[in-house]
Write a structure and sequence with these properties.
The chain is an alpha/beta fold. It has 37 helices and 24 strands. Helix 9 crosses helix 11 and helix 33 runs antiparallel to helix 35. The radius of gyration is 30 Å and the shape is globular.
Length: 817
């Protein structure tokens, strides 16, 4: 595969160099068309050599394509209309290729989409980049994941046939060959091919003879449908199907079931295939010419696929990155704008193309938002995976099954609550299998979460749920699912009714107990004001890199840690480390903190702009926590009290009564709160909606009077006093630290022990049992070991039974009022 990719890179550079070297200006539309031509023709040769290993020595590829698939088909046209020079370059590159029998052309094409050309300083070169793949949303599905997803869908469909008395197991499999299968974003056809392979294996297991199997598979192939905006990928899907059935003559039979269109754009207008190809080759993804005709919106029995997970918006880094690597690498908007202007002066028509590209996206967004087809999913910033999912439900035939791979936000994110709520309340959800991409099933962020969502008509009301999976084979494992119904979701997440992040019944019952016994954050701290104000892109016109008078430093999430507002900064860091994609800060030493050294920012905002943005907030300080996080992190919530200062989008904060902020700092950093949070957070953004649904000890609990470490006071007073002791090293919070308190913990210098005491007090506040303590600490094994578990259980029991605290920690006693 590496050799094929290297050959393609070489061909791309040679041909574009041949076409554009010496041109003062390059038209982006022409550049896109030439890139399309190279990709299309290179794949033509791969397919030809796959079917005819010695073909280049004995046959004409043009004649072979015309004979096998017809002269009016895409690949035949690409070959006959391509330049002689490009054919010469490719043939000289691939002539030595041997044994492509095991090569999947669709996978080769996917890798090719990640190879782009750069013409910096008029020097054509190839670069590895995902700008084009991201624009298309073209991350094709690994075979095993497609297999497990498709297998589950077919098994559920056949089980329903048998349980409804409409068929016996053997006949149910044969009946599936009469079903309409579809993938609305089929790419190279991974799911469609898997449907044939799974039907084949199931018929073999049922003892059906080979001839009958083949006839039924031919019938099944005639009932397969595919749609895709990428016409090359669509052709590859057909070839993969006929390759699986070893019958290239089937190409003409199945072709009418495959449609070149953007599934999300619906139109009554009719455009020719040539117009569609020309539009896509020019670089458009959203365009009225690429709309799907209304008569193609059929009802289907089995709907499969992995639709794009992209937001529908004009993203200048992705767009301009196709024409300049310098633009895509610059993460500071002001600099990028200057680079774009320079690029536009060097490329004829780039500005007008960008305007047209953006205009078509805006028209598409308006069309989608007006369409009743997407009435529940067209909320907020449009996200393609939700739109595809709603459309699938509308196009499902009676008794049909849907199996889609979507971002887990479809079942966990507040933005999808109307759509998900309609499914859960209407008993449309059959199963949901949530994955963490830790083992790189997809070549994207390892923290990314996605799910296999099975929709249909659920007669049993409860749906199967399994969270935190890492391998596709786990879909087939029995006995690990948790059965959930809509009432559970309403109790645990009353504001959104979305799925929490639990893995087993023990965790589900714990969350239900917490939700039953304690109010939610919004009920207790409804006066708190949440904020995430400064945005590096939205407010770029008011942000600079260097400090000037009347500018304020912008705090970032990496600057603070638990109870530590001076954790790290860009102090003494060189510019190349401060401003790259993954900027590096430096952890400040204890000596620097003692000397009053604060984190040095890399961005600064106009003071007047900050005052305008923050006018709804008041008070000397704020409770801040890192917004970007994950349930798989060692600590999901990292919070501290900071002076009220500008903070970037990587920071969430709230303002309110000072004593509440001090108490909440202890709560947010406690392991009990963090454990519950891990079970309720499935994304990587710890937002207001998640916090508002967190169960928290009520006022009657935290105002219980207890004797703790020889000091008698309300529980909340003990907690605030310990938190103030942990915060006192930050000189900026001197006003808070000097607050007079009924109790004092200044004699305890061990920070880890103070934090341990806080964790104990919050276990008491949440009324944890010994079993629940063990459950909570199981997620914090890097912090607390077996001895700590025993210590917590012993001292918690002591608090609950009004007995002396363990002598291993202190000889103080506890007494209830």
């Amino acid at each position: 595969m590496d050799k094929l990719l290297s050959l393609f890179s070489s061909v791309l550079v040679k041909y574009l160099g041949h076409v554009f070297t010496g041109h003062d200006q390059v038209n982006p539309l022409e550049l896109n068309k030439k890139r399309f031509e190279v990709r299309g023709l290179f794949i033509c040769y791969i397919i030809f050599l796959k079917f005819e290993p010695d073909g280049l020595k004995t046959k004409s590829i043009g004649e072979w394509l015309e004979e096998k698939i017809g002269k009016d088909t895409l690949f035949t046209k690409i070959y006959t209309e391509s330049s002689d020079r490009l054919r010469e370059i490719i043939e000289s590159s691939v002539c030595e290729l041997k044994d492509l029998n095991g090569v999947d052309p669709a996978f080769v094409y996917e890798l090719m989409l990640g190879v782009e050309s750069s013409n910096e300083n008029s020097d054509i070169s190839s670069i590895k980049s995902n700008n084009y793949r991201n624009k298309l949303g073209s991350y094709y599905t690994p075979v095993k994941l497609a297999e497990e997803t498709t297998k589950k869908a077919i098994e559920i469909y056949t089980e329903n046939l048998v349980s409804n008395g409409k068929s016996d197991p053997k006949k149910a499999i044969l009946d599936c060959c009469d079903l309409k299968f579809v993938d609305f974003s089929c790419g190279g056809g991974a799911f469609l091919v898997q449907s044939l392979q799974i039907l084949r294996r199931k018929m073999q297991s049922a003892g059906i003879d080979a001839e009958e199997i083949h006839l039924n598979l031919l019938k099944a192939a005639e009932n397969i449908y595919g749609i895709d905006v990428d016409c090359i990928a669509l052709e590859l899907a057909k070839f993969n199907i006929i390759s699986d059935l070893n019958d290239i003559d089937l190409y003409r039979v199945i072709s009418n079931n495959f449609t070149h269109a953007n599934f999300l754009l619906h139109t009554d207008s009719e455009f020719s295939s040539e117009e569609k190809i020309e539009t896509f080759a020019s670089g458009f993804v959203y365009h009225e010419v690429l709309g799907l005709q209304a008569d193609k919106l059929l009802k289907y029995d089995v709907i499969l696929g992995n639709p794009p997970w992209e937001k529908i918006r004009f993203e200048e880094k992705k767009f301009y990155g196709l024409y300049s690597s310098l633009v895509s690498k610059d993460h500071f908007k002001a600099n990028r704008t200057a680079g774009i202007e320079k690029l536009a002066s060097e490329m004829s028509g780039l500005a007008s193309f960008a305007n047209a590209f953006n205009s078509e996206i805006e028209k598409a967004k308006k069309s989608i938002k007006k369409s009743s087809f997407f009435s529940l999913s067209s909320v907020g910033e449009l996200n393609t995976y939700a739109l595809f999912a709603e459309a699938a439900v509308k196009l499902k035939a009676n008794n049909g099954i849907i199996a889609l791979i979507l971002k887990s936000g479809i079942i966990t994110s507040q933005v999808n609550k109307k759509l998900f709520g309609s499914w859960s309340e209407g008993y449309k959800i059959i199963a949901a299998y949530d994955f963490i991409n830790r083992k790189k099933i997809f070549q994207i962020d390892s923290r990314e979460r996605f799910c296999v969502l099975i929709l249909g008509d659920n007669k049993r009301k409860k749906f199967s749920l399994r969270m935190n999976m890492t391998e596709p084979i786990q879909i087939s494992e029995m006995g690990h699912e948790v059965l959930v119904d809509n009432s559970d979701l309403k109790l645990i997440n009353p504001l959104t009714k979305m799925v929490p992040n639990f893995s087993n019944n023990e965790e589900l019952h714990f969350l239900l107990r917490m939700a039953t016994d304690f109010p939610h954050f919004l009920e207790v701290f409804g006066n708190a004001k949440f904020g995430r104000i400064v945005h590096f892109t939205a407010h770029a016109d008011f942000i600079v890199k260097d400090y000037y008078k009347d500018y304020l430093p912008i705090y970032e999430g990496k600057f603070f840690h638990q109870f530590d507002g001076q954790y790290s900064g860009f102090n003494d860091m060189p510019a190349e480390l401060k401003y790259n994609a993954k900027s590096s800060s430096r952890v400040l030493t204890d000596l620097e903190k003692a000397q009053g050294v604060n984190p040095y920012a890399r961005f600064f905002i106009e003071k007047d702009k900050w005052l305008q943005l923050s006018k709804n907030h008041a008070g000397p300080c704020m409770l801040a926590w890192r917004s970007l996080t994950s349930a798989t992190n060692n600590r999901t919530c990292i919070a501290t009290v900071l002076p009220f200062i500008p903070a970037s989008q990587s920071v969430q904060f709230l303002t309110g009564e000072v004593n509440d902020l001090i108490y909440l700092c202890g709560l947010f950093n406690s392991v009990t709160f963090d454990y519950i949070l891990k079970k309720k957070l499935s994304g990587i953004d710890l937002t207001q909606s998640v916090i508002n649904q967190m169960p928290v000890p009520g006022q009657e609990v935290i105002h219980n009077c207890i004797m703790f470490l020889g000091q008698e006071a309300h529980l909340v007073v003990h907690i605030r006093a310990i938190v103030l002791e942990l915060l006192k090293s930050d000189k900026r919070l001197a006003v808070l630290v000097d607050t007079i308190s009924e109790v004092n913990y200044s004699g305890y210098k061990d920070i880890s022990f103070l934090i341990k005491l806080l964790d104990l007090l919050f276990m008491y506040a949440y009324k944890l049992t010994s079993i629940e303590v063990e459950l909570v600490l199981s997620s914090f094994e890097k912090i607390y070991g077996k001895e700590d578990l025993n210590w917590f259980i012993e001292n918690l029991n002591g608090l609950n039974l009004d007995k002396a605290i363990s002598s291993t920690s202190t000889n103080s006693t506890h007494c209830t009022p």
